[in-house]
Amino acid sequence: MNQPALSPTPSLTETLRVEDDSSVCKHCGSVLGAEQDSPFCCAGCETVFHLIEARGWQEFYRLRDQAGTMNQDRDLDIPSYAYLNSEAYREQFCQERTQQTYGTVWYLDGLHCAACVWLVEKMMRAHEGIGVMDLNFGESRLSFEFDRESDLQKLAEQLAAAGYRVGLRPHGSELPNEGLLRLGICGALAGNIMLMSLPFYTGLSQGPYAAMFAWMAFALVLPLMGYGARPFFAKAWVGLKSGGVNLDMPIAIGLTSAFVLSTVQLVLGNYHELYFDSMGMLVFFLLTGRYVQRMGVRKAMSETAKLLAGMPQLAEVWRNGRWMPVSADQILVGETLRMRAGDVVPLDGILTSETAVLNLHVVTGESHPVYLKREDKVLAGSVNMGGTMRMKASQTVEDSRFARFQTLADSLTRQKNRDQVFERAARWFLPAALSAALLGLFLWWPVSPGQAFSTALTVLIVVCPCALALAVPTARSLALGRASRAGIWIKSLRVFETLPTVDTVVFDKTGVLTEGKPNIVEEKWFTDRPHWLSAAICELESSVHHPLAGMFRERLEVAKGLRQTIDHIEAVEVRPGIGVRGEVDGVRVSVGSLAGLDGFASEPQVQDFMTREAASFPAGVGIVAVLIDGRPGALFAVEDRVGDEVDGSLSALKRRRLDLTVLSGDRPEAVQKVVDDLPLDRGLGGQMPEDKLRYVVARQSERNRFLMMGDGLNDMGAIAAAEVGVTYGGATDAALKFADVVLRTRDLSRIDYLFDLVETTGKAARRGLALSLGYNLIAVSLSLAGLIGPLTAAILMPLSSLSVVGISAWTFREGGS
Amino acid sequence: MTVERFRYDDDIVRKFVWATVIWGMVGMLVGVIIALQLAYWKANLGIPYLTFGRLRPLHTNAVIFAFAGNSIFAGMYYASQRLLKARMYSDVLSRIHFWGWQLIIVSAAITLPLGMTTSKEYAELEWPIDLAITLVWVIMAINYFGTIMKRRERHLYVAIWFFIASIVTVAVLHIFNSLELPVSMTKSYSVYAGVQDALVQWWYGHNAVAFFLTTPFLGLMYYFMPKAANGPIYSYRLSIIHFWSLIFLYIWAGPHHLLYTSLPDWAQTMGMLFSLMLIAPSWGGMINGLLTLRGGWHKLREDPILKFMVVAITFYGMSTFEGPMLSIKSLNKLSHYTDWIISHVHGGALGWNGFLTYGMIYWLIPRLYGRELYSKKLATAHFWMGLLGILIYMLAMYISGLTQGLMWLDFDKDGYLVYPNFVETVAAIIPFYWIRFLGGLLYLSGALVMFYNVMKTISGVKAPADTEAEATPFRPTELKGAFHYRLEAKPVLFTVLTTVAILIGGIVETIPMIAIESNVPSIASVKPYTPLELVGRDIYIREGCNNCHSQMIRPLRAETERYGEYSKSGEFVYDHPFLWGSKRTGPDLHRIGGKYPNLWHLRHMEDPRAIVNDSIMPAYDWLLRDKTNLRDVKAKVRAMSRLGVPYDKETIENAKALAEAQAREIGQNLAESGVADMDDKEITALIAYLQRLGTDIKK
Amino acid sequence: MGILWILVPLALLLSASAGGAYWWAWRNRQFEDMETPALRVLFEDAKPGNSLLVDEEKHERMRNHDC
């Protein structure tokens, strides 16, 4: 290293300095604990560092140091990417390019800076069989071609190990970007038409040059009308056919009449009375408004798409005498599936294993796991919490209960997605504009028909809905940007209209108000060996992968401080719906619900004793009883904890005079407890998904307007039906799909912020509208009075549009964050 | 599917960097010399080849095409290969481009002092060199588009777009502005006359600034600024908008160079409006460049490269603001023809082009030679010398310009010019010419410091091998089946076809244009020049008189009082090329004809100070010694006639005899005044031309 | 001023070719990604190492590591 030659850049020395600095991780730069002897914070960092070093990829560290950021939130739990090597993946997510090559798109989580882009591209290039490749940083999108033989699973695992988790995006979330072409071309056309018209402003009016400029402007207007303005004509035509009124109609009428009149004047040789430049500006500004709006939507959609990107699970199916990975939609009814711990059940079926522990939280909202036995029905969407489990498919994926429910939700979403502001505005705008124009025509007809036409046209140009059309999109796209920075992704623009009408906020309980994982809130011990018992409980629960096990282990280890060893454990038996028992170091220990104690307790008075003791626990908590050889061991009050910030957030909403309701699939007592503790108006427990939907729909017919916040399959219907459906990243795909708003994390304070933001947006839009209306009124009056001509009108028009943009930005600035 | 390994051509970049460094010093040295000549006229040492009129085009050409040109090519070859992930299309073409371009510069350095000039600003080179420029430019274009074609990176980074736009537009501009009819190997006449020529010239002249000194440098900025700042450009989206809006707007701003001239009012106002519109995209670009350093302003303290670049971008912003302001008519009234414009262009050239180039060179040299820069301190010293030089230069020229502009327009309360004698306004600004000289000298010294620094850096270093790189080839597989597929997949073909279409379109239009009767309101009394006047006019062009004297009296009271009737467009219909000029170091000459006797002119040319005490004009005593060349006068008249000047057959056939006859007439007049034997000397031809100037309208 | 008969159409033609270039750029999805190209500029071409060799053992460790 001691050559006098140049180091690639000065910052290489900085890299070296970091390497020498023993207190931070050599790879990710996070601070190391004092006792750590390794120069890395974890094995993952060490691996990636060696990978980078071995390949001479130090450029990564140089770039990272420039950017000053690092991917530190690496999730080391690398998911299984077996699916990527399957035929099903190639069929569903790839396009065949040649016989041997495919093209596909991945979404990468965790891209932070230039260094990430560099590393990912390098890893891709170094991988066998990867062809043309393109990484889009802004959209976290990696598209590439690969050989049939290429090991994509390995590639994805490498990427994930380096901190870039691979996801696939559901179909249909791509937005074509044609608007940009139209906008650019129209910008050029409008600019050149303006050029051709400028001489008329600066004094030219007759002569061969005037003719040349005028005819060239005409030539440029043709593509503007035929191509640039086509969306307006098309929409106006659709509106006309369906007999409705929309905002594109005055545009279409204005453009057409300006075109016809100008062309007539052109033929007559009145070159200074052409309105081609106004038309150019009109179309350009209208398209700008639409494009700005679409960009906002696109941005919001790509943010949500990042959340939606996941990895479809392959189910293992017994076929042709062996276990084969098969994608869910190809499983046939009657086939046997094998599910490992953590797998999501892809379709409805019948359990064929002896027992199973399933979490139905996303399906029904129940916070506690459910114990099933052979022949029990297994619902799609539930998660296997136990060991490997087998089931027989009883429905195809499409026919599974939730697939059908999803179809219903789909139609609900479509129904409510219609842009109403413009429709409302158009209803009065068109007649008003037309009558003003006609008024001009009549007023000036006695003076001269030419003057009359000119006045009418001036009116049509000045009332151009540019400013009107810009006011709302500008305000909204500003809002989308702010929301995005605050961790709120507004998927549906309709929210801006519907949110202010909302009077009732409905929450799911589990996972929304509460954290969705159980906690011990109180405990009682009846043994002199609590250490040993704690360890025994942990071991027992662990052996059945009970979700409470982790909680017990954590809690007990902290409380007792000591690690107790268990010599042997045998004869473990799971009683579905009751609990688990087994022999620990020769002693029978059982853990289960209080209600199920009679199955374990040797004497009835033990049960009475435990029930009496449990009576002092707070109401609504779940109770876990532990027996040692049939005698009382310990009692735990278990509760799904309410998030710290929830109370404050709900109070904030309450101050907005909103009705706050909880609808939960959980037990009514548990729901009641939440209602008692929090500033909520009411709570209903035991709500099936259909019940939630029914509740919302029924109350909607009583003129209530809803914001529904939920996270599971069980909330899907209500989310779709509510005026504003809200969910958060980490929720189920279904909830993400139907929600109008997606929060980055389960942070209820964002809902209050959302209300604020929508209010500011409304204010900005109203100010913009008021401005444009004011402008219209004044300009129309002036043109009716014959004080301004079409040329002045054309100059005023862009100014009014710009001021609308300005006032919007100002309102947001004033409104603060 | 495989990763390809290849090497960039670093050698060609080194070549262009060296050309930049060397020609930069030469161009600036010439600039300093002519700056000295304005303060101290004797600095031309009485040598015809070193007069201001001949050296000024050499200075502008050397600085624009040699210094800035080679700088563009150096940066372009370096950045493009890396952005496109490909070696240049052909090493041979790269070298032809390099040596061809240097040859053009050398030939410019020889022909311009010899007085071979077309007189059109920034396009002074004669037609054989124009052809060579076209050839070399096309070769470079082929090489460049070939590289784009074989690129391994799908996306064309914004810098590439700026380079493409520059290459295409400069080609078109150069060809159209250089349309000229050759008379001999070293002489040609512009096919356009008068107002038309002026319009083409300034359409070109402005766009030369736009597409030679702005867009390619923006390309360099978008590549080297992020590199130097170690961070991405502030907003890539903004850079794309910057590019397209400049492209759609820039081409139109030319007429602002002709405010208050014979150009129709509406065209002037239009030029002004479009110049004002340009502020928006220009400032968008400036902000984008400066904010690239966001969060890293502290780096500015240590890093001379960033210093150079940030100041360069700041000057870009200042110039693009000042330019549109200067194109506002009321301000232009004051500033046009004065040193204010000189200040403005040097802010752009020294600040924007020069400093960006220096920043780039300091960044490139260590990378091209694999060794750290010899001295960062010297680079910082260079920066301060340069910056101080620019500030001194510009301040001196502002004051000088403002002083002169105000003096020209000044009336006393009785309605008389306060300074009727032009030379008074010259004497007033001589001190500032000295200060400007010092500023220029300081800037040049900075360049010398860089030369030393670079020499020290590379001394004893063998140029390292070409940089190795690897990339996956790019295939446009996504596009299938469309009608335009083959066209789209080949940007080269596309661009070539577009350019060909433009050229065909242009040529198709040129033919009727030449036939078109001029639309300039014709004045019946305006007649073509006599053969001798034509020869005298060519001497006027050869000596570069138009570099200091305008022939365009603006319709302002101060000017009509001083010079006479304002200039009408109809008076220039036979002026191939136009000689309106852009700067008045001396007074306007449009109405000089008949104002003084022949002897006055002779004495004045022999020794200006014999007539005007404070004059800073060089003595042109060789005009009294050298014989008039009448060998090709017939060819000249015939060429003019081909361009539509209505000479009758007789005049063409007897051109030489007619010229000799007129020369005798003037010679006799001079002899009567006491100076004999001037019949066959150049001075008579020049006097014939000067005495004719602006007189037709009075007939 | 007859020169306008050339200059104006010529400028229009230039504009049209700029429009064509814009269309080409759009068709080639040049505007699709407005962030990554700005980052990619910063990459220096380091000397390519033995980048195609894959270290199997390290991959194994990477897959199985835990923190």
Automatic annotation (TrEMBL), chain A:
Signal peptide: none annotated. It holds the Pfam family HMA. Residues 102-167 form the HMA domain. CDD domains: HMA. One of its GO terms (biological process) is copper ion homeostasis. SUPFAM superfamilies: Calcium ATPase, transduction domain A (SSF81653), Calcium ATPase, transmembrane domain M (SSF81665), HAD-like (SSF56784), HMA, heavy metal-associated domain (SSF55008). GO terms for cellular component: plasma membrane. The chain crosses the membrane at residues 179-201, 207-228, 249-268, 428-447, 453-472, 769-788. GO terms for molecular function: ATP binding; ATP hydrolysis activity; copper ion binding; P-type divalent copper transporter activity. Keywords: ATP-binding, Cell membrane, Ion transport, Magnesium, Membrane, Metal-binding, Nucleotide-binding, Phosphoprotein, Translocase, Transmembrane, Transmembrane helix, Transport. It is found in: Cell membrane. The keyword Transferase does not apply. Its main location: membrane. It is a multi-pass membrane protein. Belongs to the cation transport ATPase (P-type) (TC 3.A.3) family. Type IB subfamily. This is Heavy metal translocating P-type ATPase metal-binding domain-containing protein. It comes from Sulfidibacter corallicola. The lineage of its organism: Bacteria, Pseudomonadati, Acidobacteriota, Holophagae, Acanthopleuribacterales.
TrEMBL record, chain B:
Residues 16-458 form the Cytochrome oxidase subunit I profile domain. It is an enzyme of class 7 (translocase). It catalyses: 4 Fe(II)-[cytochrome c] + O2 + 8 H(+)(in) = 4 Fe(III)-[cytochrome c] + 2 H2O + 4 H(+)(out). Pathway: Energy metabolism; oxidative phosphorylation. InterPro entries: Cyt_c-like_dom, Cyt_c-like_dom_sf, Cyt_c_oxase-like_su1_dom, Cyt_c_oxase-like_su1_sf, Cyt_C_Oxase_1, Cyt_c_Oxase_su1_BS, Cyt_c_oxidase_cbb3_su1, Cyt_c_oxidase_monohaem-su/FixO. It is found in: Cell membrane. It comes from Sulfidibacter corallicola. Heme b 1; low-spin binds at residues 59, 346. Binds 2 heme groups per subunit, denoted as high- and low-spin. Binds 1 copper ion per subunit, denoted as copper B. The chain crosses the membrane at residues 16-40, 60-80, 92-115, 127-145, 157-176, 202-224, 236-253, 273-293, 305-321, 341-365, 386-409, 429-452, 492-515. One of its GO terms (biological process) is electron transport coupled proton transport. It is a multi-pass membrane protein. Keywords: Cell membrane, Copper, Electron transport, Heme, Iron, Membrane, Metal-binding, Respiratory chain, Translocase, Transmembrane, Transmembrane helix, Transport. This is cytochrome-c oxidase. Residues 531-694 form the Cytochrome c domain. GO terms for molecular function: cytochrome-c oxidase activity; heme binding; metal ion binding. Gene3D superfamilies: Cytochrome c oxidase-like, subunit I domain, Cytochrome c-like domain. Heme b 2; high-spin binds at residue 344. Belongs to the heme-copper respiratory oxidase family. Cu cation binds at residues 206, 256-257. It comes from the Bacteria. PANTHER family: CYTOCHROME C OXIDASE SUBUNIT 1 (PTHR10422), CYTOCHROME C OXIDASE SUBUNIT 1 HOMOLOG, BACTEROID (PTHR10422:SF29). Its cofactor is heme b; heme; Cu(2+).
Automatic annotation (TrEMBL), chain C:
It comes from Sulfidibacter corallicola. It comes from the Bacteria. This is Cbb3-type cytochrome oxidase assembly protein CcoS. It holds the Pfam family FixS. The gene is ccoS. InterPro entries: Cyt_oxidase_maturation_cbb3.
